[in-house]
Specification:
binds magnesium ion; alpha/beta; 2 domains; globular; four-stranded antiparallel β-sheet; binds adenosine-5'-diphosphate; 10 helices; Rossmann fold; single chain
Length: 316
C-alpha cells in the first residue's frame, strides 16, 4: 500500500449517495417507531450538504444507516456503489472501515483518551494493516490538513473541544474514505468554535473531494453550504439551495424547494401551511407551467358550517 493522499477521487462513484423509499422501523416490546418513512435522498460526489430537522425527526437514523452502523428495514440505500441492504457482516465491517468516515457529536466518543492526537489517527490505519512508517506519514498529513500539526503529542484531555473534533475529522478520514458523515459534530461547541470546525470540514471537502453530510441544528453552520435538506417525520420535507454560499456570503441567494417523492407526494413547508391556514384538503389548479394551491373554497365547507345559507335548518 502507498502512503499518498490522493486529492482526486479514484472512482467518482465512491462519493455518491442514493436512497430511495428508505424505511427504518424500530420495534420495542410495546410499540413500533417509524424513524424513516420512505425517505428519498441523493448526494452527488464531492458535494457538502447539511441536514436539519427537529429532534426525533430521523437525522441520526439516516446517518447511522449511511454509516453502516444500522440496517434499514426496507428501501434502497446505495453508498459509493455499495448496496447497504445486501451486505453481510464482514462486508459491513470493511465498509465502515474504508468507505465512510464518521464523526459523532460527543467528542469523547470519537477519540481514544489514552492516545495522543497522532496515535489516534494512526489507530484506524493499524487496523487496516498499514506499516509503522506509512501510518506516521499519513497521520501527520491528516493532522496538517486539519491544522493541528503542532498538537500531535497532545491527548484529547489536553485539547480544546474544537481541536478534539478536528482530530476526530482526521481520524475519520485516515483510511481515505470518499464520504464523511458527521452527526452534530459541533453540537457541544459555541458558535464561533463550531464555525471553525465547519471550516475544517469544508477544507477536507475541497482539498480531498470528500462528499460530506453534516447534521446540525446551528443555523449559522447550516448556511455555510450550497444545499441544506430538512427532515420531517422521517422524510426529506424541503431543500434550500444557495447560490454562492461559502464564496461571498453577502450575496447568497437562497431558494426553498419542496421534495417530490417517487409517488408524487409533496410536503408543503410548515410556515406556508400556517400562513394560508391550509387544512385537510387544498384545491389544485394545473396551469401550463405551474400548479396553484389554494385553501379549500369557502362555499365547499360552508354548507355544513352555515347550513342556513343553503336553506337547511333555519325555520325562523
Ligand atoms: P434525530 O437524530 O433527528 O433526533 P433519531 O433518528 O435519533 O432522530 O430518532 C428518530 C425516531 O426514532 C425517534 O422517534 C426516536 O425515538 C426513534 N429511535 C431512534 N433510535 C431508536 C432505537 N434504537 N429504538 C427505538 N426507537 C428509536
Ligand atoms: Mg440525532
Amino acid at each position: 500500500m502507498t502512503a499518498t493522499l490522493s486529492s482526486k477521487p479514484a472512482h467518482d462513484i465512491d462519493g455518491r449517495i442514493h436512497c430511495e423509499g428508505l424505511v427504518r422501523i424500530y420495534k420495542t416490546a410495546e410499540i413500533e417507531v417509524l424513524a424513516l418513512q420512505g425517505l428519498d435522498f441523493h448526494v452527488e460526489p464531492g458535494e457538502l450538504i447539511t441536514v436539519v430537522g427537529a429532534s426525533g425527526s430521523g437525522k441520526s437514523t439516516l446517518l447511522n444507516v449511511l454509516g453502516g452502523l444500522d440496517q434499514p428495514t426496507a428501501g434502497i440505500a446505495r453508498v459509493g456503489g455499495h448496496d447497504l441492504l445486501g451486505m453481510n457482516a464482514q462486508q459491513r465491517t470493511a465498509y465502515r472501515r474504508s468507505a465512510v468516515g464518521f464523526v459523532w457529536q460527543q467528542t469523547a466518543k470519537n477519540l481514544q483518551p489514552y492516545l495522543d492526537a497522532r496515535s489516534n489517527v494512526e489507530f484506524p490505519l493499524a487496523l487496516s494493516g498499514f506499516g509503522r512508517r506509512e501510518r506516521r506519514a499519513r497521520a501527520e498529513k491528516m493532522l496538517d490538513l486539519v491544522g493541528l500539526l503542532d498538537r500531535v503529542h497532545h491527548r484529547p484531555a489536553e485539547l480544546s473541544g474544537g481541536e478534539q473534533q478536528r482530530v476526530a475529522i482526521a481520524v475519520a478520514l485516515a483510511n481515505e474514505p470518499r464520504i464523511l458523515l458527521a452527526d452534530e459534530p459541533t453540537g457541544e461547541l459555541d458558535t464561533a468554535t463550531a464555525i471553525e470546525v465547519f471550516d475544517v470540514l469544508r477544507t477536507v471537502n475541497e482539498e480531498l473531494g470528500v462528499t460530506g453530510v453534516v447534521v446540525t441544528h446551528d443555523p449559522l453552520v447550516s448556511q455555510q453550504v450550497d444545499r441544506t435538506v430538512a427532515i420531517r417525520d422521517g422524510r426529506i420535507s424541503s431543500e434550500i439551495v444557495r447560490e454562492g454560499a461559502g464564496l461571498d456570503r453577502g450575496s447568497v441567494i437562497a431558494r426553498e424547494y419542496a421534495v417530490l417523492d417517487g409517488a408524487g407526494r409533496l410536503q408543503l413547508p410548515e410556515h406556508y401551511v400556517e400562513r394560508l391556514e391550509l387544512k385537510r384538503r387544498v384545491r389544485l389548479e394545473l396551469e401550463p407551467d405551474h400548479i396553484g394551491v389554494w385553501p379549500e373554497f369557502e362555499h365547499e365547507t360552508s354548507r355544513w358550517e352555515r347550513p342556513e345559507e343553503h336553506g337547511f335548518g333555519d325555520d325562523s
